[in-house]
Design brief:
Layout (H helix, E strand, L loop, with lengths): L4 E8 L5 E4 L8 H11 L4 E4 L3 E7 H10 L1
Antiparallel strand pairs: 1-2, 1-4, 3-4
Length: 69
Amino acid sequence: MDKDQVMIHVRFAPNGTVTEIGERPTALSAQEWFNLLTRSTTDCYETLSGGRALFRLPRAQVNQLKSAA
């Protein structure tokens, strides 16, 4: 993994709502941050087992999204 890339871990409740997500700006809920990431990115989301997922994004893009939030 590139040192300038960030892995944002996501954890889902059984009903599909986001319960935990990394790199979340304090102004947004976990679900709002997930929605922003899914609307603003492409080809960086990976579904995992056990109600988990992962975003792999460049650090600069994460910083830009956080400041826009």
